[in-house]
Amino acid sequence: MTAIDYRMTRRSILIGAAASLICAPAIVRAASLMPVRGLPLQFLNPEFLNRLGQFYRRCFYHSLDSDLRAGRAMSTVSNGTIISVAEAHRMVARARAQGWLPPYSPTI
Q1: What ranges do the domains of the chain cover?
Q2: Does residue 82 contact residue 76 with C-beta atoms inside 8 Å?
Q3: Alpha-carbon separation of residue 58 from 9, 63, 80 (angstroms)
Q4: In which band, very low, low, confident or very high, does the pLDDT at 108 lie, cut at 50, 70 and 90?
Q5: Do the Cβ atoms of 90 and 78 come closer than 8 Å?
């Protein structure tokens, strides 16, 4: 293993001073800065929140439907309780009736 010499030399001081001058932030007047637009607050928009809720609801019903079609053990939890198979069938049928899921089409 080789020893590396980390002593401060005139060269390292000169390089450090030059780097700090180059990288130093410029002080300018606030009036000369480019105006910046504010961020859109779309996350507080009720319409956006409604669409987001609809997306989550569709994902939930789709997952429930695929679990039932595949015959997987029900592990879906809603409000802290596991959904029974009978309740899952009722929820999927209600989702189809309300248009949240497409009409049933058997997989080939």
Answers
A1: 47-103
A2: yes
A3: 67, 8, 20
A4: very low
A5: no
